[in-house]
Every structure is written in structure tokens, then in C-alpha cells.
Write a structure and sequence with these properties.
mainly alpha, two-stranded antiparallel ribbon, 23 helices, 4 strands, elongated
Amino acid sequence: MLETIFHHPDLWKYVSIPFVAGFVGWGTNWAAIQLTFLPIEFVGRKPYLGWQGIIPSKAERMAGIFVDSTMVKLGTLPELFEQMEPAKIAAQIEKIIIPRLPKYTDEIVLRENPTVWRRTPNVVKQAIYERIREAFPQLVHNLMAEANEHIEELIDFKFMITDRLVHDRALLNRLFLESGDKEFKFIVRSGLYFGFLFGLVQLAVWIFYPAWWVLPAFGLAVGWATNWIALNIIFRPLHPKKLGPWTLQGLFLKRQREVAVSWCSLVTREIVSVRSMIYSMINGPYADNTRALIKKHMEPIVREAMDPLLTQIAVGNDSFEEMRNLVGEKSIAVSTEPFDDWHFNRERGQVVERLLRQRMEELPSEEFQDLLRPCFQEDELLLILVGAALGFLAGLAQLFFVFGGV
């Protein structure tokens, strides 16, 4: 039998079997990764005729898993805000806002009573500007001290992170892709290696038993098994095990320190930053608490620094209350401006990054794997079935186009 095959004019057909199996393994694993993350938006006709990447399609759920399985283990909101040093945040606010105070004052008063402000002598205006400048640093210090003390009443930490990731699904993808970059490349490459090995077995079976169903059945097995094997090599064993001269451990788990560096840098740059926290204070579910806090601390500005102007207006409590509201609303409107400074955000982020990285490096393997594992677990069976189906179709194609349907 073997001698007949080796002298067969179509020897290439037999030789092609392990190479086709390797290509099938590579292709099905590559397709599985692509289907996990792409496309970011649904392509096709909803709800069933089309596709959206598994991670982007379940962005809210995946973002929630990210918070619950990883972030809460690395640091609480009060801890992270304390690491950002509220005193330095206050100093940044002073640095950016104090030079703009005269401009903001003009805008507020011109809106409330333009005629009186235009007739106000410059010496009075300058006195008001100076009072505001003198009062502002203490006001900001008090505001940040109280914000630090009651930070969980001002920011919904889970909402802040999930909202960011749901509205930027490409960033959600990057959380997994950047932390598991080497593992995803291994999954694709391993499909080629394992597929070729399965192909050698397939060749042996085909030589002695060339039934029509052998090629599609092995194609299905290759598509299924290469995905399954790759996933297990990435995450198993959880803890290092000695096997002769080798130490075995899941590929992702062996890279814990390396992953912590890239992952924590991404998180503190784009998700848990000073700017994102301030933005969430102003626009998140607890925004009313923040607005009330800001207006409370702005009242001394109106009551003391603008007293000369209020005396001129002399229309009683209604004018005072309106001015207080205008000052509060303007303060809220400009509250994120100091944090558009990329260098300040990065400098504060690096402090938090060190804390997160240290804690991530210390996570036990059972918890560290949760950083990447959810992106596979969410639809692991679906991905394996897709790989199996593609392998089956490749086997059919090989049967008909290479061996003529036998």
C-alpha cells in the first residue's frame, strides 16, 4: 500500500494533507481571534444577519467584569484618589484658573448686570479681582479636602469606568489585546503547528482508510482541537510545575510582571486618570452632589469678594442668590479645564500606575488570569465551534477539489 502511494502520480495530494491541516489550524485560530474583537460596530442587518466582535458586542458586560474581577482587587476609589494627591490637584487648579479669574468675573457680572459693571470704576473692579485672587487658593484647598473625604459620594467608580469603555469599544479591545498580545500571536501560530501534527495522523488514517468522511471529520477535529489546546496552554497550569529540566506554567501567567507594566500604563493613561475622575464628578450619576459642593464653596467668593459690587446693585437677596448661582455654574463649566494638561495627567497617573503595578504583580495566579480569561470565557464554546465548522468546510473542500470527492 505504502509503496503504491509513494509511486503514485498524485503523490502531492497525499503530501498536501498535513500542510492543509496546518493551514486549517492556523486559519481557524486566526479567524477566532478576529471574531472575538472585530468588527467594533455591527456589520449586516440586525439582529441576526451579520456580526459584531464578541467583546464589542458585550461591551457593558465585559467592562463590568473588568471592574469587578480586576480593578476592585487593585485599589479602591478613595485609595486611588488619595494617591493622586488632592493638594497637587488643587495646585493645578490654582495654576490654570487664577490667571483667568478677571475674565471669568467679567463674564459673570456682565451677564447679571452689564450696565452697573460697565459703570463700575476700574479701582473697584481691581479690588474685586484682588479679593477673588486672595480667597481662591483657600477655597480650592477646602473644596479638594472635602471632595477627598467624600469621594465615593461624588464618583460612581464602576460607572466611570464602564461608561468610558462602552463609549470607546476600541479601548475596551485594547485592554485585552495589549495585555495578551503575545498570547494571541501564539494562538494563531500554534494552530499551524498543531494542525500539521494532526494532519500527519490524518494522512496515516487516509492512507489505510480513504473513506469520504475522513477529511471533513479531521478538518472539524483540527479546527476544534487547535483552539482548545492553545487556550489551555495559555492558562494552564496555573502554578509552576517541574517536569524534568522544564518548568511548566500557562504562558500568560508566566508574563505577570511584563503584563502588569503595559496594562497599568494603559489604564492610568486612558481610564483612571485625574481628568476622567473630575469629568465623572461633573457629569456622572452623582453630579448633583458635586454641583452642590462646588456652589457651597463658591459662596464666600460672592459674599465677601464681590461685596462692593453687590452694594452698588443693592437689590437684596435675589441678586445675591442669582450671583451665587452664576458663580457656581461658571465654576462647574470650567472645572475640567485645568486637567486638559497632558503632562499633569501623566505625572499624576504614573503615581497611581506604580501602586496598581505593584499590586498586580502580587496577585495570585487564580486572580491574575481574570485579566485576560474573560475575553475567551464569554463565548469560548462559540469560538471553538466556529473553528470546528471552518475546519469541516476546509476538509470538504480538500475532499472534492484535491481528491475529486473519492
